[in-house]
Amino acid sequence: MVNTFKIGDLDVVVVSDGTARAPGTMYFQGTTPEQWEPHKRWLDHEGNAQRW
C-alpha cells in the first residue's frame, strides 16, 4: 500500500528505504536504560526502538 497525500497541487508519495532498530539509549544519546523503563511500550521485545 502506497502512502500519498497532497500539498496544494503537489502529489507526495512516501517512499521508505527500510527501518532501523537499536536500543533507545543509542537513538537518544545520554539517556539510560532506567529512563527508558517507563516507556518500554515503545520498545520491541528485544528492548530496541524502531525508526521508520
Describe this structure in words.
The protein has 52 residues and is an alpha+beta fold. The protein has a domain at 18-52. It is built from two helices and four strands. A hairpin with a 2-residue loop joins β1 and β2. It is elongated, with a radius of gyration of 16 Å. The relative contact order is 0.23.
What are the main properties of this structure?
two-stranded antiparallel sheet, 15% helix, 52 residues, elongated, 4 strands, 2 helices, alpha+beta, single chain
Q: TL;DR?
A:
This protein has 52 residues and is an alpha+beta fold.
Q: Could you give the topology of this structure?
A:
Elements: E1 3-7, E2 10-14, E3 20-23, H1 24-27, H2 33-36, E4 48-51
Antiparallel strand pairs: 1-2, 3-4
What is the spatial order of strands in the main beta sheet? 1-2
Mean pLDDT equals 89
Q: Overall 3D geometry?
A: elongated
SS-based class: alpha+beta
What's the main sheet like?
2 strands, antiparallel
Question: Order of helices and strands, N to C?
Answer: EEEHHE
Content of β-strand: 25-35%
Gyration radius, in Å: 16 Å
Spatial separation of the terminal alpha carbons: 15 Å
Total DSSP E strands = 4
Low-confidence stretches: none
Helix content: 10-25%
> Helical element count?
2
